[in-house]
Design goal:
about 140 residues; mainly alpha; 2 domains; 5 helices; binds heme C
């Protein structure tokens, strides 16, 4: 075997090892990248065995009028802050109730004078605001 040929073989071997190392490094890096950008959650197709047990159903649907009132309206409507009609004070509510429930709800949704839109409860659905108005009215007649 000539020295020249042996050198070539060695060189080829070294190249092959380097290439293999480079590709391992690349896959490690790729995996690292994939891990870093993978979505937080994964879709689970019902009936597939690799799915985790279903999470207990979270109560859905609107919060009650009382809950919404207690969370979002009580700050002003309990004390009459800024001229808000006080809950359970019929005299405060009679002229407002006379406008009809639809008007009250629409004012509660879009705001009127000192009454901010949705009473600032931006995560309240329209339905929840309506329930809160009904709750306030039912306690103030
Ligand atoms: C920052 C204080 C504040 C908060 C919070 C607030 N309100 Fe009011 N609200 C007012 C004031 C002040 C008025 C009186 C406005 C006026 O007629 O000048 C009012 C009036 C109302 C009225 C009567 C509207 C009319 O047409 O006469 C309704 C109904 C009402 N609020 C519902 C709600 C509901 C429901 C919430 C909670 C989701 C809420 N408010 C939260 C201050 C507030």
């Amino acid at each position: 075997m000539s020295i020249k040929r042996e050198l070539w073989i060695t060189a080829a071997g070294v190249m092959a090892v380097m290439a293999a190392m480079a590709s391992i490094a690349a896959t490690d890096l790729e995996q690292e990248l994939i891990d870093r950008i993978k979505p937080v959650g994964e879709v689970c197709i019902q009936g597939k065995s690799d799915c985790a047990a279903p999470v207990a159903a979270v109560a859905s649907g609107p919060r009650s009028g009382e809950q919404v009132y207690g969370a979002a309206c009580v700050a002003c409507h309990d004390s009459g802050l800024a001229g808000a009609p006080k809950i359970a004070v019929a005299a405060d509510w009679a002229p407002r109730i006379a406008q009809g429930e639809e008007t009250l709800v629409s004012h509660a949704l879009s705001g009127i004078r000192g009454m901010p839109p949705k009473g600032t409860c931006m995560n309240c659905s329209d339905e929840e605001i309506k329930l809160a108005v009904e709750y306030m009215v039912s306690r103030s007649q």
